[in-house]
Amino acid sequence: MTITIKELAQKCGVSTATISRALNDDPSVTKDTKAKVLAMASQLNYKPNLLARSFVTKKSNIIGLVMPDIYGEFFMEIIHGVDEVCYLNKYYTMVSSSHGKRSTAEAIIDFMSRGIVGGIILMTPAIDDEVRKLLRLNQLPTVVISGKRDYDKCDSISIDNYNGAYSLTDYIINIKKIRKIAHISGPLNNNDAIQRQRGYLNALEDNGITVNKNWLIEGDFTTFGGQAASVKLLKLKERPEVIFAGNDMMAIGCYIAARQLNLKIPTDFGVAGFDDIFASQFLNPRLTTLHVPIYELGKEAATILIKRMNKTEKKEFKHITVPTELVPGGSI
Amino acid sequence: MTITIKELAQKCGVSTATISRALNDDPSVTKDTKAKVLAMASQLNYKPNLLARSFVTKKSNIIGLVMPDIYGEFFMEIIHGVDEVCYLNKYYTMVSSSHGKRSTAEAIIDFMSRGIVGGIILMTPAIDDEVRKLLRLNQLPTVVISGKRDYDKCDSISIDNYNGAYSLTDYIINIKKIRKIAHISGPLNNNDAIQRQRGYLNALEDNGITVNKNWLIEGDFTTFGGQAASVKLLKLKERPEVIFAGNDMMAIGCYIAARQLNLKIPTDFGVAGFDDIFASQFLNPRLTTLHVPIYELGKEAATILIKRMNKTEKKEFKHITVPTELVPGGSI
DNA sequence: TCTTTACATGAAAACGATTACATTAAAATA
DNA sequence: TATTTTAATGTAATCGTTTTCATGTAAAGA
What value does the mean pLDDT of chain B take? Predict the structure, then answer.
């Protein structure tokens, strides 16, 4: 039995307007009235109906989190970070994925046009034209989390895929003194994948290494894809000494391939990954990879968005690039 | 620029009532009008404001998912399952955790009293008195996902922890012919932990094995706790031949302990877990554990809840127990 | 042809909050 | 003391949708 503002007003002997003002800390209401209202409100357990409030103010303190798929560690960490910040600011988190069945655009439209959410965090591997168009005529504050900074009409956060991949490749070449490095990239319609591959290629070039075309394979970011690509690489006449997988999932595929072909890591060949997912630390030997601070990324996105929703942020859009961190394991 | 029902009504030359009826498939509106309205609605890209609708109907197609903490695979799989079903039924998923800072009860109250959500999925390791009281005077449809069926005034789904643990212990005794089995339980204020321990103990008893008190340790469901407990067990004068960890995270701790003490799994000692988390399949050797269909559990919970919210479910509350499945690995 | 019934649509209230504007009472000024 | 200013509160409109009740028109029955 939830109580409404009218009933509370009656109990307090004041009008609903005064109640509303008292609860929203309006300076025009006296200390005494405010105290009386607050006391009665807490006694009767009154909580303003958020639906009604959002409806009339045209503002919603619900954040819509749009992701390609609600699955895997990456998404969990993002949700975790977003939810944490939302909670601290009395905001709510609503999740939505495109479920492989609809486009990201549809998911966004749904949120934008229905008045439920007051802001959007959009996580996407790449911004296509449809989404770009939507964002342009979008009235809702939005923060984009992406593999690359490729849209600047709203706040954005991206992972420094390029420098991460570059530094890891450079580490293999100059610290580990290994020059025969293969790369299994992610799908090349994915910006994370593209930037990581670019980092790898440029590091090779800068160190005067010509790319062996057979050692550059396009994978799909899955364990199975990584395994297949690894087997292909390891059966070549000229075998690479290290396989740099575009993400940890594919790196795990390398481990499986090693077992399958009865090869030892790192003695027979080395493996490197990208992401530093939870499972990586339990691989034997521990995977050498790049840590991506995903949880912090989610927190940052939510923080920026909430400021924007509160209009406490200045007009210019923020574009943040978060660095990755090398995690040396025993796999190289 | 979202369009409202009034503007749409004007464009169509009918009243807002007719629009509403046409869009909600009311039988009293003629085919022709309905067609006209639908055509115009899709042309103008009209989508009813869900806030306004929920506000007036006092029904919300938003599901509140309350969990102790939004972290780890378990929660991700639940969210994944819930979101999937929500999407298919045009429902929305709102997540909320107690963030270690507030009680589950507060999270529920927040959802119940603010009118945002129309139903609740409550995931909790144990229902305390406060929550029990809340559920009793709760008007919102609720589905409880718990480690044990311990509240029957609403729909509930629980994992068959007891039989899972029993069957795994029995498997170790009668198939693997090992009788020296230790158990690292989860925290004993957690129903999952309690039921799993009970399954282990009863299986021992039924096979005529007396429990060695030193081999029964209360852990905390974390990797680190599992490691510490394992080290303790492995340093005993009389060492167990198999350590049955209350969950996979602690089982991973056993692997770490093995490396630390320079012992080999399964030759020096065996390990078993519970949950079949993602990382378990990549442990070397693969962990013997019990698969818990968490994703399906989330889907089931959402399905029941939505039926309840639509009032298409009959009065009696459902109580479902989902079985676990033995996953034999190489760790025993 | 006139009355009754059924059917399609419209007018208007309702939901619970916020807020612009009006009102009253008290304080400040002349 | 009379008038103006200010401060606190109340009145009522508003948001976008659904829904009850009223209304008008066409079909059915007498």
Answer: 92
